[in-house]
Amino acid sequence: MRNVGFTGLEANETYNPTRGINYAWEFIRYQIIVPLLQIALYICIGMSIMLFFERVYMAIIIVCVKCLGKKRYTAYQLEAIKQDLEKNKNYPMVLVQIPMYNEKEALVELECQKWIRSGVNIKYETRNNRNGYKAGALREGLKKSYVEACEFVVIFDADFQPEKDFLWRTIPYLLENPELGLVQARWKFGTAGVWRMTALIDAGGWKDRTTVEDMDLAVRASLKGWKFLFVGDLARVSIWKKWHVIYAFFFVRKIVAHWVTFFFYCIVIPTTILIPEVHLPKPLAIYLPAAITILNAVSTLRHVNSNKENGNIYHFNCLSWTYSQSYCSLCHRSIHLLVLWILFENVMSLHRTKAAIIGLLEANRVNEWVVTEKLGNTARKNNPRAVMRPRSRIGERIHFTELTLGMFLLHCAIYNMLYGNDHFYVYLLLQAAAFFVVGVGYVGTIVPN
Hints:
One of its GO terms (molecular function) is mannan synthase activity. Its main location: Golgi. The chain crosses the membrane at residues 32-53, 256-278, 284-301, 398-418, 424-447. This is Mannan synthase 1-like. By secondary structure, the chain is mostly helical. Among the domains are: 74-240, Spore Coat Polysaccharide Biosynthesis Protein SpsA, Chain A (Alpha-Beta Complex), CATH 3.90.550.10; 375-449, no CATH class. 56% of the residues lie in helices and 6% in strands. The chain has 16 helices and 7 strands. The protein has helices at 2-14, 17-66, 78-88, 108-117, 133-141, 166-176, 197-202, 213-224, 239-274, 282-297, 321-325, 338-361, 376-382, 394-397, 400-419, 424-439, and strands spanning 74-76, 94-97, 152-155, 180-184, 193-196, 227-228, 313-315. The protein has a 5-stranded mixed beta sheet. It has a two-stranded antiparallel sheet with strand order 1-7. A hairpin with an 8-residue loop joins strand 4 (180-184) and strand 5. It is elongated and about 95 Å long.
């Protein structure tokens, strides 16, 4: 009887499906998940250290600028250049480009007809398509035959009016300094700038692969070595400077920063709570992100370096100097929004990481224009309440990816409260709430289809 009972117990233990599932889970947990999570943790810590040193480097430059008064710029005296130009009376030909689309106040055709009646050689032309949007319009305008006689090109936006002496304030610098490729106007002129035509062509012209066509052109021109408001001298850019631009601006800022924010703070750290076999160094998980956040927060207020007394225009090296000038001091009026800003940035890192992966792995999608177009006057007349139309369908309002991540973080927070001996649940609860807020469509602008 004992042998029969023992055999029956043995049979029950052998064919117990629950134990089989537990054994399989333990094998996958210790042999696959734990090693992969440990590797991901080391990679995220390494990228965090890279990001930390990059922030410290920029902080040192900011301290040198603000405290030591160190300045790396060249001052050009405008009045002396203007006097020499007036003596020679050798005025250059300047092409003026004003890209516009459905501008209500722009009566361009009527103005051109008025100028024609006054004897001015002017012709009104329009495109029959919107290929490339603003960059495409600028590029198309440079294909005209009369552009060959133009030495410089100035670009104005359609929503502001420059002062009458704008060219007198910009062109003389380009004439007297052949190493300059661009003169960018002061902030009161909006985004207006004057390009040397040879510099624009040398950099490859306008590209419609991005919505920030002006920055794209400036980076390409800087790598060509042209000198302008934010670039070094005309000499060939050294390998070190090119490496610095690629590493600091493109790799660290555009890839590492987004990946660390999403994978480390929203995936790896919460997962280590569920799998305690993975050792998470507390200093690297708490103090290092806090230091990076503080360095980032105190660099949010854009610093404007200008000298209105003598009217000089200063030129900086965009490879390092202006990068630090763009972020210099903490805006005290927004300090109370710091925590909300951190949580929102972590949520948005999901989309930035997705965009970075698409840009790296699917290069053919880089040229796709998935942007919000201007509605124009026609859309406003046909549907005056289009912009204010609320979302009625759940599929348009609910974002399931954000909600899924919110549920994951909430689960990790509850698990940490019940079984953990630390206080990670405080951060996890706040971050989960941020994902839920975005997931239900509470944050963002509603754009009609």
